Every structure is written in C-alpha cells, then in structure tokens.
Amino acid sequence: MTYPLSSDHRALQARVRAFADRFLIPHEVHAELNDGAFPDGAEAAARAEAARLGLCAMNMPKALGGSGLSTLEQVLVSEQIGRVTNGLGWLVTTPARCLAEVATEQQLETWVKPTIRGERHECYAITEEEAGSDVDAIRTTARRDGGHYVIDGEKWHVTSANQADYLVVQAKLADGPNAGTHALFYVECRAPGVRFVRTPAYSHTYAHHHPIVAFEGVRVPEANRIGAEGQGMAFTHDWFRYERLMIAARCCGAAERLIEEATAFAKGRIAFGQPIFDNQSIQFMLADSLTELWAARLMVYRLAEAHDAGEDVKILHGQCSMAKLYGSEMANRVADRAVQIFGGRGYMRENVAERFFRELRVDRIWEGTSEIQRSIIAGQLAKRGQEALIG
Ligand SMILES: Cc1cc2nc3c(=O)[nH]c(=O)nc-3n(C[C@H](O)[C@H](O)[C@H](O)COP(=O)(O)OP(=O)(O)OC[C@H]3O[C@@H](n4cnc5c(N)ncnc54)[C@H](O)[C@@H]3O)c2cc1C
Description:
CATH architecture of the largest domain: Up-down Bundle
Radius of gyration: 22 Å
CATH topology of the largest domain: Butyryl-CoA Dehydrogenase, subunit A, domain 3
Order of helices and strands: HHHHHHEEEEEEEEHEEHHHHH
GO cellular component, one term: cytoplasm
Bound molecules: flavin-adenine dinucleotide
Strand content: 5-15%
Domain Acyl-CoA oxidase/dehydrogenase middle: 123-200
Cofactor: FAD
Number of helices: 12
Structural class: alpha+beta
Largest sheet: 8 strands, mixed
Protein name: Medium-chain specific acyl-CoA dehydrogenase, mitochondrial
Organism: Tistlia consotensis USBA 355
CATH class of the largest domain: Mainly Alpha
Distance between the termini: 24 Å
C-alpha cells in the first residue's frame, strides 16, 4: 500500500479483510443461488464477529454505543466490505448521522440507540416514481393535524424495507409557516396506513429488497419529526455526501477483488500453450484496471482525511461527487474487463466477475446518477473555480 497509512490503520484494514475473507466471501455463491440469504447459522456468526470488531454503527458516536470511527477508518472498512458480493457485507451498518445529531431524548431511546445496538433496523424513503434525481419534486406531503402530522404519498426503491422496523420518510410540508419545505419523519413500518405496494425484482440478488411503499393518511406525532421543519433537504444532502464517499470506497474494494481474481485466473488459464496473462491484450486490461483503481483510492483516502480535518463542507460536497463518479465508473469498467478475462466463466453466476458486473451497475445510479454528479461538479467549477476543488 503506497498511501501513508498508520500501523493502526493497516491493522484495521487487515482485520476487516480477514473478516470478509472468512465470514462473508465463502457464502457468496450460496447467497446468489438462494435469494441473497446466508447458509443456516452463517449470518449469526458473521453478525457476532462484526459486532466484536466494532463494525456496527461504525459512524455513530461512542457515547451512544457506536464505534466512533474516523472517516478514514470508515473508508478503510467500507473498502474491504466492498470486496464482497450479494450485499452480505451490509451487516456493517452506518445509520444516517443526522438521526443522532438532532435526536430528542425520546428519539434516542426509541430509534437511535436500538438501531446502534442492532436491535432495530431503519430504511430511507425519499425517492418517488416522479422524483428521483430531482428530490425537490417529491409529492409526499405532511399535513399538520393538532399535535400530529398526516403523511400521504408513495415511495419507490425503499432499500431494506423488508428487513426494517421503521422508515425515515422525506415529505413536503403541506401547510403552516414552512409550507413547501421538506422534513424527515420516523414512521413505524407497521403504523396504520403504511402499505407495501409491491416488491419489484432487481438485477442483483440481495436479501435486502427495494419495495414500493405507500403512505395513506399515516398519522405520526410531532415528536417523530427529525430536527426542525425545513431541515429535511439539508439532512438528505448530508446523507448523500456521506454515502457517495462510502460508495466510492466500496467500489475500490470491488475493483481490488476483481483485479486480484482476474489476475490469478489469467496466470493459470492456458490457451494456445501459454497462460492467457502472457497476451498483451489481457495485460493491458489489468494494467488499466490497476491504474484506475489507484487513482480512485487516492481520491477516496484523501477525501476521507479532508472530512476528518473539518475542511469546507461545500468543497467536500463537490469532491464527494467526483469520488463517487470516478469510483463507480472505474469499478464498472474493471468489472467489464474482468468478465472478458474470465471468458465464458465470467458469464456464470457462480463467478465473482459476473456478480459484480450486475451489482456495480447501480453505483452509477443510486445516491445521485453519474449525470447528477457531473452537474454538481460542473456547478462547483463554475462557482468556486478549479483551485478550490482540486488544489
Ligand atoms: C437498487 C436501488 C436502491 C435504491 N434505494 C433507495 C432508497 O433506499 N431510498 C431512496 O429514497 N431511493 C433509493 N433509490 C433511488 C435512487 O436514488 C434513484 O433511482 C436515483 O436517484 C435516480 O432517480 P430516478 O431513478 O428517478 O431516475 P431519474 O431521475 O428519472 O433519471 C433518469 C435519467 O435521467 C437522467 N437525468 C435526470 N435529471 C438529469 C439532469 N438534470 N441532467 C442530466 N441527466 C439527468 C438521470 O441521470 C438518469 O440517467 C434506489 C434505487 C435503486 C435502483
């Protein structure tokens, strides 16, 4: 590793790599052939080990029971978890930071601390059929009714809703002094008026589904509002920024695994009397992949350190877009080349390249598509100039 990581950081990296190698990667093919599920007993073992290693709620403050890892440490963990397919690494959890930052005492006890302890599970309901990239176009409303809000709307792609106890729902305020602004609310999955409409099938094979969820006159007490009226969009932007960096980190891990496995295969596979690795065409694919991985990794590590140093959040916003854009597109190129290197084997679902080829595609879509990242970056370039963004 050429990046100057401390011995503690390298030790963390090694621990999480060993965890992924021993507790997650061996179960990938089973998961692929069984709707994303671990074999019997394996999930409990993996969860226990993840908890022992302090990987649950790794971004949450220690005072609340989280691991309180620095951003650089979280990136190192996410990178190793990114080496795993089928979402098996999702038992490493990172609840949205705002939930803890603005929580009331009651919210801490009801939602935040149980989530940190792994006893309760959350999901995020922001996107709608007519509002994905353009979040401000959401039609879900929260209307005041005495000490309650009444929520109406329908959310799409609600990741993990099938495993969650509660949703964090983004809605537009329908009335009052802040009408038209956004707010986030805790909504129990079993609250009257919450209806799971259907669960579409997606390209990847994950145990975490992405159902469409309707909210039909759902009454939530004012105490379920997260922060103040009007803060919803700022919380979502904070979450996007964080997730974009972690997606970039996971993409680096995926690329690392693909390069490792494709290189090993290329060295062992004999065609026309020699390892296919000896062909320049194969070497060039691996060389391009390694070079691009290094560039992405340097961006991710540097950006994580910038977060830890408390650098200007407006600049970090543009830089997170760059890391997510480059990292996700890099990993997709690497996966495509890996499939090619594996040949027919690369088209088999038991092959890691085939799985990543499908799974990594969404990293160019969720938490803001590549086009949206580019427009954020271009907007920042126009507003702040090159030097502010890349030094
Ligand atoms: C597997 C999966 C899980 C998800 N999980 C969640 C979740 O848990 N919670 C949640 O709230 N959402 C979730 N999402 C939603 C995800 O964030 C959105 O799909 C994403 O933001 C894109 O929105 P959209 O699908 O509506 O695409 P659209 O906004 O309809 O975009 C369609 C196309 O138009 C392009 N486009 C749109 N606007 C512009 C523009 N201004 N300039 C150039 N091109 C543009 C886009 O880049 C894209 O190529 C998930 C999505 C998927 C696929």
